[in-house]
Amino acid sequence: MLPIISKSNQNKTAIISNGNSFSYDELRIASQEFASYLLGEKTDLSESRVAFMVTAGFDYVKTQWAIWQAGGVAVPLCTTHPLSSLQYVIEDTQAETIIVSPEFESILKDLAAEKNIRFIVLGQESQGIIKELPQLSSDRRAMILYTSGTTNLPKGVVTSHANIEAQVSTLVDAWEYSENDHILCILPLHHVHGIINVISCTLWAGGTVEFLPNFSADGVFNWIKKIANSGVKGVFMAVPTIYFKLIAHFETLDESTQKALTENMKTFRLMVSGSAALPVSVMEKWEGISGHRLLERYGMTEIGMAISNPYHRERRAGHIGQALKGVSVRLVDEQNEEVAIGEAGEIQIKGANVFQEYWLKPESTENTFTEDGWFKTGDVAVLDDGYYKILGRSSIDIIKSGGYKISALEIEEVLRTHPNINDCSVVGIDNEEWGELVVAAIISDDKDLNTDALNKWIREKMPSYKVPRKYKLVDELPRNAMGKVTKNDLKKMF
């Protein structure tokens, strides 16, 4: 799934990384040369899995495109995962090739030798030869991404070239990407958010992707300042924790610097939040700082993006929006019957964007689809005046306590409005009397926060059965690479 590089954009900048700019033509030639090198004496990799641990930037995109053009299946590895996690993915996919940036050679070299896996260190391969590359049908496997594995071992999510094209083309249309877009990539590139929404959609539309190797609030704001004065259409996408950090840094700046940055950000075309629920408090603070009402959307590794707040119309706080064009959405109860409007139900998805299978897990694949082909997301939502509102994961965010089904996300939103609470997370823990007990972990600058007073405060804002029975003050919440709170780890703290 590659964009069409026309004569009109072949000299246009596709990627900026490490202070260097690369045109679309340079990217095309480099990826074709590397694809030819990957093929060797073969004419087609024939869906051979190629794992790659490559630094974000030109080399990452070149490698991904090369694997696809050679007929392989791209398996991006997380550059911060421990060896045991990397080994699991490499062994589970039965990867026949591993590609690494030089800085990661020592991590995977011995494993590759032990497993007799072809091992390629970027910069050491021969270049300059472009062979005839295979013609690929759209139904061939293109990529395997691994789910976070909060309850079981991570599963490999297999998407075809057709799946990826559907995910990309739908978003390009919905969010109006164009060749004038200039986007910053600061997200991990073993995840659908960075791979599809940031890189693939922007390059498909002929825009420019710039990479920031290490996240810093100063780095992001300096980039925003540069883009605002360059005449291009700035686009920024991040996860809620990044917006939280940017807000915290912005508040430390002097008033004149703040005003200048706000004017810079107002020149941007679009700002998006995803990968975790966006707290309403963060959305409102960012709007005050930037002049942008963040566009919140809903997606998963298995489906790309499926639901989104509209580009032009109202972006409703606390809601994920409406079904994207070409994506069917329904809400069902535990008997798999559609619920009435206004009632909570599991989100189920159908469309060309939905993944093919869980790698080598036919039973898991079968269990995650209904008999009539709907993908069961495990997320619970309600349709609220035409907009979907997420209540949480059925397995982790919907707490069953005293006969009630309680949304942890709803309680978190209320807690975050308390003046002494910086952030929080709510979970249910096993309890003999109640089934599950509602508990909350809280981050606060007030280390002597009076939880009795907090309890009294929250009882004035919601029914007593939703009020947390225990509170725990913590310095930070356990999170995965995309900033999502890992609630099973949080439960152990209680």
Automatic annotation (TrEMBL):
Ranges of residues in domain AMP-dependent synthetase/ligase: 8-359
Domain of life, source organism: Bacteria
Single GO molecular function: medium-chain fatty acid-CoA ligase activity
InterPro entries: AMP-bd_C (IPR025110), AMP-bd_C_sf (IPR045851), AMP-dep_synth/lig_dom (IPR000873), ANL_N_sf (IPR042099)
Chain ranges of the AMP-binding enzyme C-terminal domain: 410-484
SUPFAM superfamilies: Acetyl-CoA synthetase-like
GO biological process: fatty acid metabolic process
Similarity comment text for this entry: Belongs to the ATP-dependent AMP-binding enzyme family.
Protein name: Malonyl-CoA/methylmalonyl-CoA synthetase
